[in-house]
Amino acid sequence: MIKSNTLELESLLVVRLSAMGDVIHALPAITALREALPDIKLGWLIEERWAELLCTRHCARSGPRSLERPLVDRVHAVYTKVWRRSMLRFDTWQQIARCRSELREASYDAVIDLQGAIRSALLSKWAGATVSFGSAHPRENAARMFYSRKVKVNDRDHVVEQGLDLVRAIVPTLLGSGSVLLPVDSDAEAKVDSLLSGTRRFAILNPGAGWGAKRWPAQRYAEVARELAKDNLISLVNCGPGEEDLAASVEAASLGAARKISCSISELIALTRRANLFIGGDTGPMHLAAALKIPVVAIFGPTNPARNGPFDTPAIVLRSPASVTDHSRHRDPEQGLMEITVGEVVEAARKLSGSDPRKLTAPDQ
């Protein structure tokens, strides 16, 4: 049993539903919590789409931890986007009832909401825990009414540090280990090894982003790939759902220096573990690379790298002084983002080669 500020805990439910980068930002805090309290029963409530960040597709969602589910004892999945589109369907209400019942039966002593949204706070209540931790100033202010313990967090800090501050309400002496625990999927590892057969050094280029204002032009990624090829570095262009045409345009314009690749989350984890370099904007794959300590060239526009940039990995962040922090989902690339040149990105990539022990620019011996 864990005693925390007079609170006795044997189990804890973590709530961070989405999206990919935000779930990854929560991992350092929960990994540090797991290291500090190895015997506590940890559950995590997450959108099904992102569950592979916690558990491989073939692994049981609960039971003894393993390489396939290394961090939490139980994964609870929700489907809120699907539910919202089909609220009049009987099977939707059946799924909701099953999820609520599953959370209640787990009998968590406490809940910690790392999302700070009304949606996550409401879902936290499904667990029926008497104690709930959350930020005193959450992202959506109304969420705070659902927390029994409101934690002061500096919202000017990086979001990883904000997560660590929240978890320190449970373990005051918590130190961030700088590591994360991500699943290892043997099938994905084998597929990526086969895919990379004969490829010794490579960079992941990620031209996609959550909205257009964050997307550096595909043509420029292609030019970067051509320059990196001169350093014996192959460029693999990652594309998520709906980004196939974007990746294909980079591949075509690269004149053979880049090739597109589409991965499941487990495959992307395996691929990123093997990468020498990552180049891209403020996206989930970039935060995955940072979590795995891969050198990152981060191309930022309207979002603030002090809060959302690559954390605790060799990195060079490129952002024009003309960029203004703005989360409006504009379709066209932000003006400041367009001021970042191909030359600046290539120069940053070559500088980072010295921080990677695999010496990505060194010729084969």
What value does the average pLDDT take? 94
SSE run: EEEHEEHHEHEEHHEHEHEHEHEHEHH
By CATH reckoning, the class of the largest domain would read: Alpha Beta
Spatial shape: globular
Question: Would you write up a description of this structure?
Answer:
Strands 5-4-3-6-7-8 form a six-stranded parallel beta sheet. It has a six-stranded parallel beta sheet with strand order 11-10-9-12-13-14, with helices on both faces. The C terminus is likely disordered. It is built from 13 helices and 14 strands. It folds into two domains: 166 residues, Glycogen Phosphorylase B (Rossmann fold); 170 residues, Rossmann fold. α1 packs parallel to α5. It is 35% helix and 18% strand. It is of the alpha/beta class.
Q: In terms of topology, how is this protein built?
A:
Layout: E1 2-4, E2 7-9, E3 11-15, H1 20-36, E4 41-47, E5 74-78, H2 80-85, H3 90-106, E6 110-113, H4 118-125, E7 131-135, E8 149-151, H5 159-167, H6 186-195, E9 202-206, H7 218-229, E10 234-239, H8 244-253, E11 258-262, H9 265-274, E12 277-280, H10 284-291, E13 296-300, H11 305-308, E14 315-319, H12 335-338, H13 342-352
Parallel strand pairs: 3-4, 3-6, 4-5, 6-7, 7-8, 9-10, 9-12, 10-11, 12-13, 13-14
Antiparallel strand pairs: 1-2
Helix pairs in contact: 1-5, 1-10, 6-9, 7-8, 7-13
Tag the structure with descriptive keywords.
single chain; alpha/beta; Rossmann fold; six-stranded parallel β-sheet
